[in-house]
Amino acid sequence: MSSNLRIACVMVGLPARGKTYISQKVCRYLTWLGIKTKVFNVGNYRRKLHGASLPHTFFDPHNSIGEQQRREAAAAALQDMIEWFSNDQGIVAIYDATNSTKKRRRWLYEKLSKHDIQVLFIESICQDEALILANIKEVKLSSPDYANTDPDEAAVDFIARIDHYKEQYETITEKDLTFIKLINVGSQNIINMIQGYLESRIVYYLMNLHIAPRKIYFSRHGESQYNLEGKIGGDSSLSERGLLYATKLPELIQNLGTQDLVIWTSTLKRTVETSQYLDYPKLQWKALDELDAGVCDGMTYEEIEQKYPEDFANRDEDKFNYRYRGGESYRDVVLRLEPIIMELERHENILIIGHQAILRCIYAYFMNYNHEDLPYIKIPLHTVIELTPKAYGCEEKRYKVDIDAVDTHRPKLKKSPSVRKLSKINLGASGEIVREPMSPIIPISPNLFPRTSSNPSTIDLSEPALGSLE
Ligand code: F6P
Questions:
Q1: 282-284 and 262-265 as β-strands: parallel, antiparallel, unpaired?
Q2: Which CATH number goes with the domain that contains 300?
Q3: For helices 19-32 and 356-367, what crossing angle results, to 10°?
Q4: Are 284 and 265 in contact (CB under 8 A)?
Q5: Is 223 annotated as a binding residue?
Q6: Is 233's C-beta closer than 6 angstroms to any atom of ligand 1?
Q7: Is 354 known to sit in a ligand binding site?
Q8: Backbone φ, ψ for residue 457 (5° rounding)
Q9: pLDDT above 70 as % of the chain
Q10: For residue 319, how far is its CA from the centre of ligand 1 (angstroms)?
Q11: Name one GO molecular function term (predicted).
Q12: Which of 72, 157, 164, 221 is the catalytic position?
């Protein structure tokens, strides 16, 4: 469905309140759902225009030169963002800055509304001093602003910078604006004037997000009988080696030292058997069952190539959008996994014992893979993958257990135009490529409710307001 919907998520909040983390998470989530999204970080524009390593006095609201230069950075980011919407057909942009005065927010709202862009303000409020300090240490001190600065000096400077922002910070109270306030990492949320499906989706996602540190582990089931025979799908039990992996898993997991782990499996025998010796709370999810290969279930790739040569070629042509006859595509699986992602964001330490295609989709969400590369991600058997979410992405470690297993990864093939039969329209057909790449996976309704300003006459549109805080 074509859509003229354009949403700007405008971040609001003092420095070190997790705004960049939230911006990146929303961006990755929407991109994973095929919605064209981009973050515009005003701090990056400020560094590009005026250099990094500026002392806290640059951010003092009484420093008129600093004030002027920060306004320039804010305007340049806004300009690029508006151009990106029209030139690149962007759907959601995230304007990552403090935007902490009413005047600044009004200016942004008016500029964006003029271009028929919906504005959703996302304010992050955090009163937990320990969390703020942890954020300063983990993210801010390694930022280009403090390259080659002694960490203690950098911390003192950054806290002074926050104090300058505090001088003029105004929390959102503007009733005519659309906003969500996230207070103390999801302990309280306030929402106002949310309209339309996509805005509600973003808000729902934000309400599930928590920023407490945690680990996410993935493991495929141990090698199965079908893996040994080169067959796909089915519901076979573990092979001898697969069972051995299941017996070794408790020791490996225990050595990782993560407390309060919860285990999720699919409903299929091979994942349940793999989890059997692990002494943690367990949950089975139907939504975690392997990609449904339809009529090809139980066949080897060679058999599929012989029996359905066109389908086989179509899958190599566009593996993400190819849907098996009577089965699923990776695109279908992403949609099916969306509630899992939401649930994953709500919980703390989790180990998912899953399947090749399923873990590729979930891994791609955390590691920001595009749809073209997603179906080729390597998730080998007998390996535990550990992800630790950080501000700009996830840190990854892989633990390989020393038990042989077959390799089920089929590399991306060179295209063979001779047997291509492409259907790029959304017929809901099977054995074909269904949907254009990069079309959204969730429905996006057209922009039916463009906003109007409540009081435009009081607003100066000529230049950014005073009190710019980047
Ligand atoms: O081969 C194991 C398996 O989990 C199959 O059951 C499934 O069809 C396949 O992997 C998915 O991988 P691909 O998309 O690369 O065929």
A1: parallel
A2: 3.40.50.1240
A3: 140
A4: yes
A5: yes
A6: yes
A7: no
A8: -65, -20
A9: 89
A10: 12
A11: ATP binding
A12: 221
Among residues 6, 59, 15, which one has the least CA distance to residue 36? 6
**Is residue 48 over pLDDT 50?**
yes
* 180 shares a domain with 32: yes
DSSP-derived 3-state class of residue 454: coil
Beta strand segments in 113-241, E: 118-125, 179-183, 188-192, 216-220
In the chain, the amino acid numbered 240 is: E
Give 326's pLDDT tier (boundaries 50, 70, 90): very high
Question: Domain of 360?
Answer: 216-412+439-444
Q: Which residue has the higher pLDDT, 447 or 66?
A: 66
* Ligand 1 neighbourhood includes 231 CB (under 6 angstroms): no
Residue with CA closest to ligand 1 atom 11:
357
Whole-number Å distance, alpha carbon 232 to ligand 1 midpoint, is 6
Same domain, 240 and 358: yes
Choose among 210, 332, 337, 225: nearest CA to 273. Answer: 225
Nearest atom in ligand 1 to 301's CA: 16
Confidence of residue 320 (pLDDT cuts 50, 70, 90): very high
Domain final position from 208, 233, 252? 208
Can you give the pTM of this predicted structure? 0.90
Q: Crossing angle for the helix pair 19-32 and 330-346, nearest 10 degrees?
A: 150
Q: Quick one: 243 and 105 in the same domain?
A: no
CA distance 330 to 322: 7
Q: For residue 316, what are its two tokens?
A: 């190599």
Answer yes or no: is the C-beta of 357 below 6 A from any ligand 1 atom.
Answer: yes
Instruction: Work out the number of other CB atoms within 10 angstroms of the CB of residue 332.
Output: 18
Give, in degrees to the nearest 5, the angle at Cα 376 between 371 and 378. 125
Residue with the two structure tokens 């919907």 = 5
| Distance in angstroms (rounded) separating the CA atoms of residues 74 and 42 | 6
- pLDDT greater than 60 at residue 1: no
Q: What is the pLDDT of residues 131-142, one digit of tens each?
A: 898 889 888 888
Residue 381 carries which side chain, given as an amino acid letter?
L
Angle in degrees, 0-180, between the axes of helices 64-87 and 102-114, rounded to the nearest 10? 30
Nearest to 210 by CA among 30, 94, 31, 342: 342
In this structure, the answer to whether residues 227 and 301 fall within a common structural domain is yes
Q: Is 227 annotated as a binding residue?
A: yes
